Amino acid sequence: MTRTFILSAVAVCAIGATAHAGADFATVDANSDGFVSETEFVTWKTSSGEMSAADALLKFIEIDADASGMISEAEMKAAAEKDDNDSKSSTEM
Predict the structure, then answer these.
(1) Most buried in the list 6, 32, 88, 91, measured by CB within 10 Å?
(2) 85: part of which helix (H) or strand (E)?
(3) What is the per-residue pLDDT for 5?
(4) β-strand partners of 71
(5) Cα dihedral 37, 38, 41, 44 sign
(6) What dihedral do alpha carbons 82, 87, 88, 90 form, nearest 10°?
(7) Is 2 helix (H, G, I), strand (E, B) or coil?
(8) What pTM, to 2 d.p., does this model score?
(9) Where are the domains of the chain?
(10) Which of 75, 62, 48, 47 is nearest to 16 (CA)?
């Protein structure tokens, strides 16, 4: 239920931060286990001070397509491609 609410909030307030934002998957996967945990992701996204922990959590939930609680490299890539496509679409208007 909470996850549904949070995903709805994401849809309403489009977060403009991209999934890749200058870092590759290995950089974000701090413990090198092949997945990005919520903690790893939030730490990465908030380290520059440009995103709040709450916004980073919403972005994590958006990227975690299978709701496993971990982001795979494929999920990260898919989110980056979606963000790139969304950016291109908005500039074409």
Answers:
(1) 6
(2) helix 73-91
(3) 52
(4) 36
(5) negative
(6) 120
(7) helix
(8) 0.70
(9) 2-91
(10) 62
- Class of domain 2-91 as given by CATH: mainly alpha
Q: Is the pLDDT of residue 83 over 90?
A: no
- What 8-state DSSP symbol labels residue 49? S
Both structure tokens of 77: 């890539």
Higher pLDDT: 2 or 23? It is 23
Would you state the structure tokens that stand for residue 69, as one six-digit string? 């609680």
Predicted confidence (pLDDT) per residue in 9-68, tens digit: 544 343 334 444 557 899 999 999 999 999 999 999 999 998 999 999 999 999 999 999
Taking only Cα atoms into account, the Rg of the chain, rounded to an integer number of angstroms, comes to 13
* Distances, alpha carbon 52 to alpha carbons 45, 46, 58, 66, 82, in Å: 8, 6, 10, 24, 22
Q: Tokens 């440009």 belong to which residue? A: 50
**Ordered alpha helix ranges (H), the chain:** 2-12, 25-28, 38-46, 53-63, 73-91
Residue 26 CA to residue 44 CA, distance in Å, equals 12
Parallel/antiparallel/unpaired status of strands 70-71 and 36-37: antiparallel
